[in-house]
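Hi there,

I know you've been waiting on this one. I reran it after we fixed the sequence typo, so this is the corrected version. Both the input and the resulting structure follow.
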Amino acid sequence: MARFSVLLDEVHNLRLASHSFAMLCLSASTLSDSGPNDARVVRQRLREISGLWARLRNAGDHILHGSDNHLIQIMSKAFTRQTEDSFRCFEDIGISICTQLLFDQRPETTELRELMRIVTEDLHQTIDGLLAAARHVGQIGDQSASRLASVDELTGLPNRRALYDHIQRYDAGHWPHSNVAVMQIDLDRLKIINDTMGHAAGDKALRHASAAMISADHPNMFVARTGGDEFVLLLFGDFVSDALKDIADQLIATISTPFIVEGKECYAGASVGIETGSFADGLPLDSYIRNADLALYTAKNDGRGKSRFFSPTLRTQIEKVEELQSDMREGLQKSEFRPYFQPQVEGRSGKIVGFESLARWHHPSRGVLTPFHFLSAAEDARLLDQLDQHLMVSTFTTLRTWIDQGLDVPQVSLNLTTSRLLDVDLVDTILFAASDAGVDPSKISVEILESAMIDNTSKRMIENIKNLSAAGIKVELDDFGTGHASISNLRHFRVDRIKIDRSFVKDVHLYSELARITSAMIGLVHSLRIDVLAEGIETPEERLVLNALGRDHIQGFGVAHPMPASDVPDWLQATQTTKKLPPRRRKNSAA
């Protein structure tokens, strides 16, 4: 490595500089007009040599900073008491000669002779010892560097380079066993942990996951960390599918166990893709790794925290996903993504209180698609932020149009992802888009998924939520009841409304236990002086029961389906002139 070469060069420079200093002193002593100017040159040269000596003596703080302690100790031990004494004698004579030159005196002959003796004998021998130590450090360091080049420094596992070195050796000779199982493992929540709790917590998650994989301890096993949150596990031997699934699921369970970061529980989670192969197939190991990666992609798309086997049909499915992602990029350029608006109304009067902006894709061949068909692909293709920005600008522009038409639209709400909530520029981005469209911030509401708050104590997120409220933007907690950590987090920031998840609304008129649970949730929220919206209302019966339980607002197909912006004026005209909902359908009800 470069630092070891620098160390050796510095020792050589010390020898050259000490010889040069001795010749400079001899030259100054023979000049008839030597004096203060010569003294300054000699003194400067001596300071440079003293600086070189100090850098070598404290190499651990300078040249070898960050190196292994063993290497630093080798260099430090080269500076013995005898070594220090010889250099101190050299410095003392050099200072004496400088002083004599400063007062227009010629250096004494005895001192010049002693200086030459020290440089050619004592100091020469001392520098030989330093050179030997520096060469030893370089040899060990190069060996360590070669080893480290194949080891992931954080986890101690082999890295991608080591994995493919092993693969080349296996493919060139014979596998440890005629059959192999390959597992691609990916941590599900590493980015969230890094973003919300810091990279030290993320590092702990990686070490926690590595320990789980090492603990699997199967014969002929090789595990490597191949990327930020990615690992590859090779298992050589005879395995039936059920056994491999058990191994993968046990890995997921172990990795998903909580670990403590600064006194708080944190969990990473994992997904696993599996592929099996045989040496007799004649295929390189890398081909099985690629197939396992495709299986991993499926496991993540199926909800994460799962294991999936590769099958030939997966390749076709993934090709379709990649085609969809390509269509999405083109669709964003052509403004095929548009906001649809679902009304939110008072439960009893039906008076409009706002609209939720929901993404719809006008696909040129597949028609209008809901986020169910493209959201996961957008996330994997890193298109979510671009999609969010496009829909936000379109929503604000539409709201401005309605206002100019004289329509009474109290507010529109936007959905924010966890990554957007962690964006340092979030508030400025929203305010700039609103200002550009001519929309007052008080007419904007942002919806935050309750799940985004689970295990999430990010100062950035909390600061963004507080700043949204300070800017006059309303904050709502969405899908309330599906998580477990939001109530405790409400003490950190203000929420204007909580949306009770659909699972507490569906068939509430049929199940008295569900009605009691929902009633308790509404009471809890009201005790915090926060409005409640019940989402997913589909039937008049559900609406009636929710009205009786005391919710404030409702939303769902029972009020209206999401509609394009062009349909909103007609809907408002049809429903808001009498401040009533569309007629209830008659149906016998148990409620």
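Quick highlight: The chain has a mean pLDDT of 84.

Best,
R. S.
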